[in-house]
């Protein structure tokens, strides 16, 4: 599989960005799994990062059924797909990814920013209000419960 634009996106990145889940699924059945799952663009994003960014649940679900470890894949900035979902205000995607067992490994970027920071910077202030499985608390420090585990996010 080769890149098709200057951002080094593959056809799978573009299908995810445009949420073409039927075509994505058809190609998924025809191509080797490793080619799809591990290809990254110039920013280090996997196809799951792109699906999370635009809220394409169908493609995210297909990918995670094939390779559950993609939930913790990091791009060049250390962002995971759950971080991308929070940064772009994708409530349904955030909820779906927060239900995965390894979601707690992706709540903080390499520079220390949390998914709460990402949502606030993107001005998605209410994104966490209705999720019992992904809730933030605290003043001097923050902790988040994710898939029934507690993670501390210190400032």
From TrEMBL:
**Claim: Nucleotide-binding is one of the keywords in the record:** no
Q: Which InterPro entries match?
A: Ankyrin_rpt, Ankyrin_rpt-contain_sf
The ANK repeat units are at: 43-75
Q: Which UniProt keywords apply?
A: ANK repeat
The protein's matches in Gene3D superfamilies, at most eight in alphabetical order, are given as: Ankyrin repeat-containing domain
Q: Which Pfam families match?
A: Ank_4 (PF13637)
Q: What is this protein's name?
A: Uncharacterized protein
Upper lineage ranks? Eukaryota, Viridiplantae, Streptophyta, Embryophyta, Tracheophyta
């Amino acid at each position: 599989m080769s890149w098709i634009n200057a951002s080094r996106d593959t056809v799978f990145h573009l299908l995810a960005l445009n949420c073409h889940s039927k075509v994505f699924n058809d190609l998924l059945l025809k191509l080797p799994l490793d080619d799809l799952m591990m290809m990254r663009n110039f920013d280090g994003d996997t196809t799951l990062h792109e699906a999370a960014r635009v809220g394409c649940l169908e493609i995210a679900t297909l990918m995670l059924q094939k390779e559950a470890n993609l939930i913790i894949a990091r791009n060049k900035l250390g962002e995971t797909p759950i971080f991308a979902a929070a940064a772009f205000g994708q409530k349904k995607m955030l909820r779906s990814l927060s239900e995965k067992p390894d979601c707690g490994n992706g709540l903080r970027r390499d520079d220390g920013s949390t998914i709460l920071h990402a949502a606030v910077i993107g001005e998605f202030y209410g994104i966490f209000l209705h999720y019992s499985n992904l809730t933030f608390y605290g003043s001097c420090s923050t902790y988040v419960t994710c898939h029934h585990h507690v993670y501390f996010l210190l400032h």
